[in-house]
Amino acid sequence: MLLMIVLLALFVVAISGITTVPFSVGLLVVSSVVFRKSWVFFLAFGLGLFLDLIAIRPLGYTSLVLTIFVFLIRLYERKFETQTTAFVFILSFLGSLIYLKVFDYQQIFLQSLINSLLTVLFFQLSKKYG
Questions:
Q1: Residue 107 CB neighbours (<10 A)
Q2: Which H, E and C letters describe the chain, residue by residue?
Q3: What is the pLDDT of residues 14-73, one digit of tens each?
Q4: Is 60 left (phi over 0), alpha (psi -120 to 50) or beta?
Q5: What's the pTM value of the predicted model, to 2 decimals?
């Protein structure tokens, strides 16, 4: 399962140069919910740095947003049942929406919906095969 996360992280970094759909948010939601480990913070920080390099933004902006997002997931995992499809869908939709709004992208609702559906698909696959 860890190998699948590493490969998916590399795929997210590669595809982020082509499209504006924030696949990294979905990857972090699934990683946080499934693994519940502290290395997800380092994954968020590293993905953020790579996304800043690809998007030619000042280093650290995306890392800060993604790390705060993972912190909020970890903060609320004790209050809510996080291992459900509804939680993953809502969290990835809201996270994508905020991410796209912070970085001033267009068509944020459509991109957030696409990202949430793909996140739920990956979450279901990780529950079935992980």
A1: 12
A2: CHHHHHHHHHHHHHHHCCCCCCHHHHHHHHHHHHHCCCHHHHHHHHHHHHHHHHHCCCCCHHHHHHHHHHHHHHHHCCCCCCCCHHHHHHHHHHHHHHHHHHCCCCCHHHHHHHHHHHHHHHHHHHHHHC
A3: 676 677 788 888 888 988 888 888 888 998 998 888 888 888 889 888 899 999 999 998
A4: left
A5: 0.85
